[in-house]
Amino acid sequence: MTSRRHMGDPQSAYLDAARACILDVGWRRTTLTEVARRAGVSRMTIYRAWPDMPAVLGDLMTREWGEVVTRVVAEADAQLGPGATAADRIVAEVVATTAALRDNELFVRIVELDPELLLPYLLTRRGRSQEAIAELTAGRIREGQGDGSVRDGDPVAMARALLLASHGFVLSAHTMVDDAVGEDDLDRELGHLVRSMVAHP
Predict the structure, then answer these.
(1) Could you point out which of 94, 118, 150, 178 has its C-alpha 20 to 30 Å from the C-alpha of 58?
(2) What would the pLDDT profile of 7-31 be if each residue is shown by its tens digit?
(3) What pTM value is reported for the model?
(4) Do the beta carbons of residue 54 and residue 31 sit within 8 Å?
């Protein structure tokens, strides 16, 4: 998933402006007019790109989460090295991606001010980012089934189950953190959970 920010797409600057608005004042107070002002273009320029703010948010989240996943997966793979099995990579990638999304400043700001924006992706439908992450994970599962490190099963169903299991660690980990258990402890448990879900028993 390559960011349009790095492909010369002029809409990337508009998404940067929308991101800055949301970080500053939250979703409810962000308007297409303010996005246009921050981007230094006319309001009609923004309206030609997106009909409303939900459309902007959809593209912004797709770009943001896609960049996070691309970066984190590359970093996790580099740390493991060429000798790692696909199962090893799945565990490392899921845990690292979960932690990175949980700490992402845009994600944190949305959860703080406008958590209802995330509800459709949890209760009603899958978003583009969720689809992309599930497809990436299913591909890694197929690799693992090929090298023998991942158990048999439908890669698509397994990937979606991993995504469901990870949702809580992204959205609700803070509710389980206290003096007795930290985020690192939960991430280690997530690693055990992921391995138990994909590796041969």
Answers:
(1) 94
(2) 457 889 999 999 999 999 999 899 9
(3) 0.88
(4) no
